[in-house]
Write a structure and sequence with these properties.
The protein is α/β, with parallel strands linked by helices. It folds into 3 domains: about 5-90 and about 180-190, Periplasmic binding protein-like II (D-Maltodextrin-Binding Protein, domain 2, 3-Layer(aba) Sandwich); about 90-175, D-Maltodextrin-Binding Protein, domain 2, CATH 3.40.190.10; about 215-280, Alpha-Beta Plaits, CATH 3.30.70. It has 8 helices and 15 strands. It has a 6-stranded mixed β-sheet with strand order 2-3-1-4-11-5. Strands 8-7-9-6-10 form a 5-stranded mixed β-sheet. A hairpin with a 5-residue loop joins strand 13 (about 240-245) and strand 14 (about 250-255). Helix 3 (about 70-75) crosses helix 4 (about 120-125). It is globular, with a radius of gyration of 24 Å. The two termini are about 25 Å apart. Bound molecules: adenosine-5'-triphosphate, 1-O-pyrophosphono-5-O-phosphono-alpha-D-ribofuranose and magnesium ion. Adenosine-5'-triphosphate binds near residues 13 and 139. Keywords: Amino-acid biosynthesis, ATP-binding, Cytoplasm, Glycosyltransferase, Histidine biosynthesis, Magnesium, Metal-binding, Nucleotide-binding, Transferase.
């Protein structure tokens, strides 16, 4: 097997990582509770591992690549590096405490800080010259203060709901911003075949991410406002302009960001464009290879 890839077997990363691989044409379905799935057609084996262990396997070179979180990679201190941002599991890593108790990082000096990311926290505090008593927990860290084992916590924050419901407020700058990433080892040597296979995987994943980000926009445009229309829909390289039977009009096709499509349609309509269509992408290769 040319490529062995570590995929999170549970938690916030798992379902989205598998969905991404399936959308990229890989057979990454787990039947029952399989921990290893081989996709012979693509010459890949997926190993379903605990999210916290993935950087260790990839860093050591025992698996070629893996999907993990930037915060987990940093916390592992494994010799591995991100090769592609995957855009999901976006979060911040923050300190928090009950309001009015600890409100800045220097005030943590000598206090008890609970976390399940001890390496990440220790490094950040060392960089700020602050020494604490670290309380290592596995999860549900927000309860640690009320239960009396810590004075502050450092944990993943997405919506902030877990902090709010535990009566905690974040303080200090975020320790880091994280998202899901594809990683490879910085230490091992990859064979030429493996390097080519990693490139192919990366291009496929990037294609899926771009397909989710962009849509095709088609519209009919009076020639008199074509410059303004093209400025609204510049596309990635340049819009495609085709003649129409009515010589006063042209047909324009361009890629637009999905999250901007409604605004762009409003503005095109306002300058006189007609028959504006937005079509989702099933797949694409539009950004350059890494
Ligand atoms: N609520 C969340 N929203 C977005 N990303 C999250 C959230 N919780 C965790 N993550 C991210 O998911 C990755 C895995 O985090 P973690 O190890 O805490 O696993 P988990 O998804 O919480 O599963 P578990 O704690 O049950 O093992 C990390 O990169 C983290 O930043
Ligand atoms: O800001 P929020 O949207 O509330 O999300 C953040 C919470 O999500 C994660 O917890 P998870 O559910 O994975 O439980 P865990 O603490 O056991 O990891 C994380 O550890 C936070 O507790
Ligand atoms: Mg968690």
């Amino acid at each position: 097997m040319t490529l062995r890839i570590a995929v999170p077997n549970k938690g916030s990363l798992s379902a989205k990582a598998i969905e991404l691989l399936l959308d990229a044409g890989y057979r990454a379905h787990r039947r029952n509770r399989e921990l290893r799935v081989t996709d012979s057609a693509n010459d890949i084996t997926f190993f379903f591992q605990r999210p916290k262990d993935i950087a260790t396997y990839v860093g050591s070179g025992d698996l070629e690549v893996g999907i993990t979180g930037l915060d987990l990679l940093t916390n592992s201190a494994a010799p591995a590096r991100p090769i592609l941002d995957l855009g999901f599991a976006r979060s911040e890593f923050r300190f928090a405490a009950p309001p009015g108790t600890i409100t800045s990082v220097p005030e943590l000096q000598g206090r008890r800080v609970a976390t399940s990311f001890p390496v990440l926290v220790e490094k950040h505090l060392a960089d700020h010259g602050v020494r604490v008593e670290l309380i290592r927990l596995d999860g549900a860290v927000e309860n640690a203060i009320e239960l009396g084992v810590a004075d502050a916590i450092a944990d993943v924050v997405e919506t902030g709901e877990s902090l709010r419901s535990a009566g905690l407020v974040p303080f200090g700058e975020p320790v880091m911003r994280s998202q899901a990433i594809l990683i490879q080892s910085t230490r091992r040597a990859y064979t030429d075949d493996q390097a080519v296979a990693i490139q192919a995987l990366t291009r496929r994943l990037r294609g899926v991410l771009d397909s989710r980000l962009y849509a095709v926009m088609d519209y009919n445009c009076p020639k008199a406002v074509l410059d303004r229309a093209c400025a609204l829909t510049p596309g990635i390289e340049s819009p495609t302009i085709s003649p129409m039977a009515d010589r006063g009009w042209v047909a324009v096709r361009s890629l637009v960001r999905r999250d901007e499509a409604q605004r762009v349609m409003d503005e095109l309509e306002a300058i006189g464009a007609k028959a504006i269509l937005v079509t989702a992408l099933e797949g694409c290769r539009i950004t350059p290879a890494p």
